[in-house]
Amino acid sequence: MNLVSNVSEPQPAASNAAPATSDLTSDFETFLKMLTVQLKNQDPLNPVESADYAVQLATFSQVEQQVLTNDLLTSLSEQLGAAGLGQVADWVGREARVAAAVSYVGTAIDVVVKPAEGADLAYIVLRDENGIELERQPVEAEEQILGWHPAPGNDVSGRRLSFEIESFAAGESLGTVPAEVYASVREVRMRDGTAHVVLSGGASAPASEVTALRVP
Fold this sequence. Notes:
alpha+beta, five-stranded antiparallel β-sheet, 2 helices
């Protein structure tokens, strides 16, 4: 089932602000009671200066305003996050191009091959969820999209897999880089205020890392 969900649904600004306002009212009443006790019990021979009371009131007022401002900013952030989720909601059911882990379910996984400049040979390197290399397949050293299947006898069904491209020139390695793949978007959700896409197999990636979309 395709889903669009928000892990932490934003609440209206009014409902977020109400508890903080109630707490501040209670704190202010407590502050006034303490101030009254202080006035009643001060030393007549060494009374507290009126300026000191003014400083206390001003300080409390500043803290009160800061708390209210923080609550407002939090509410706005949640609302903006929900708007970002709506922008990627229609990605569900499409195939996203992204460097993320996917699962092999018997059909080819389209891997984007981008060898390093000057390479004369490249390999598609397959790794499991622990980073252990499972296999490598040689490919031509040119930018292309290849439909990948595991080598005969290598059963990787249901495992979370990631791909890398290692480039070579004259037998010397030019380095390894993560490879992008095309994977179905099953769900979009909010995580830490950022929209993420959940791919087939359960892996997820920030929506900002998706470089292309296509219709299956």
